Here is the input.
Amino acid sequence: MSDSKREPMLDMFIFETLNQLEHLEQSLISSEKSSNLDASINEIFRIMHTIKGSAAMMLFDNIASLAHAAEDLFHYLREHPGIGIDHPALTDLVLECVDFIKNEVAFIDSEEESGSNPQSLIEKTSDYLAALKGRQSEEQAPPATSPESEKALFYISSSERGPQPEGGPRYEAVIHFSESCQMENVRAFLIVHNLKEIAGNIKFYPDDIADSDASIELIRSEGFYISFNSPHSQEYLDSFFQRSACVDHFQLSPAPPESEIDRGSPRGCRPERPGPAAATIPPAPERFDSPSPSIHQSMINVSVSKLDRLMDLVAELVIVQAMVTQNPELEGLNLDNFYKEARQLKKITNDLQDTAMALRMVSLANTFQKMNRLVRDMSHKIQKKVKLELVGADTEVDKNVIEQISDPLMHLVRNSLDHGLETPEERLTAGKSPEGHLSIEAKNFGGDVWIEVKDDGRGLDKYKILARAQEHGLTDKSEAELSEKEIFSFIFLPGFSTRDGVTQFSGRGVGMDVVIRNIQAIGGSVLIDSIPGQGTTISLKIPLTLAIIDGMTIQVGRNRYTIPINSIREAFQITEDELVCDPDGHEMIFIRGKCHPLLRLYQLYHVHPAARNINDGIVLQLEHNGETICLLADSLLGEQQVVIKPLPNYIKLQNSNIKGISGCTLLGDGSISLILDVSSLLKL
Here is the structure.
């Protein structure tokens, strides 16, 4: 986790490097699938160049040197588009570099020493490049650089350019960064760092950009001034500045002659000097504005801790708003204007809450895209052909939910690849295509998100699962006593595995228990549907957010309980003659031809109810995971939005066997309501 007290520059480096690596992985895998590097080679080269520059600036030499080697490789590939390459081998090599850099960034983030040495990977990359050059020299002489390709050359590493260019005309530029840009001094430093590869005799103002916070305000108010000599054309230099990160607009022009200003000394660097040199930098001629139109960024990076704090404040506002409008002291008073304004306050509070929640909503795209790498690597190792399809990746959920489902999704994909999908030979024997199909689909449904992991493999063998469960003492029931869903659910138990031997990916009985544990921890559920010989679908039902829910508050005696609205099917009253008992003496309610278990909350929590007689109470039918249960309560108090709070530690310590409670909330009158966990109630 990022420490809020450490340097913001370090946090930005970690964030941007990891984002760049994610994009790099997807570009590599896409180019490997299409066996065509042309569409993504510029993007890959740019990412490696950026990582090299920012790592060098931060003095992370391990990352910078490895990124430099990869950059050299892709520079050569870009300059020789016709050369034949082994796409899987190239992808394996670069992904190995990506993994090394990710590992280094993880050590940087945790503020630990890695002790890793990239030298072997650098040599491996250099050997690969040498082999390409050797093959190219045998086939044809290296092509000369055409004038049309000059625009792309400013990314070439300095090691291949030779010494920094000192000749050529002198230019000066005034650069203005976008309003949403942060740490403008760092951005300015990166421009200077990258400019050294195509220019010499560089001077800039303010000249203390790496050390002084005051330089940030100066750059924001007056812009960043830089002058340099370069043999490249002005059009080429325009392209350089246009591609620089966070640049909103700039002015580039030939520097005035030495008679007007000291050669190599930027204007404004010597404010004590009288005359034109001390004046404000005049605007460049109008013609330099056209190639670099103003581009305003509509996205900014915000610390998650700030969003968490905002959500906490909104949650407290929801509670206080309910406490004000439902204050018992207002009962019996004629307050028409107050209630009119209270309704407006509630509307604004709800809008603010929706906006705060929307800020925390994150697309599943990054989580889904990570599965491309997992499927690619694993299918190669277990020698299976797999086509991965991603559907609904733009579906959004709360960021905290995203963090909880990443591991379960990874384990489900691994399980499908290892257990579900057959080998190409087995699939051909079964009359299937040799290439297996695996799909991950996300969709919104009510207040929940459903994620389905589906394969067209061999399906689950319920007889083998039941036999293994009986062998491990997990059940003593026969097949006739268990439903298919109950048998399938055994695969989520810790230590359970149907594989006879241990492999690199399975056989130890770990993984699937992580799925059920993580999903249930966020109030979700897991469903399994499988047809032998046709495949398996595992569905994850997860809430959109963990902070605020719509709930129905009920009363039992003096206690109040809140039930998530999306778990309630209906509420009704019944009479004693509608009650039946099963052979074990458990009460059941017969509703529309089906029996549903009845749970009297006052018996479960040992409270004194107002309605012991079922005729005097209200029954709520709840549903979870396709199963139902009926609860008897004294009365319904109404629906309202509630803020979910964890149970206090002292309650957990004194009541180690709390049943059916997932948290608590504060109601408008200041009383506390316990939030019922429907999935737990079904197991009682």
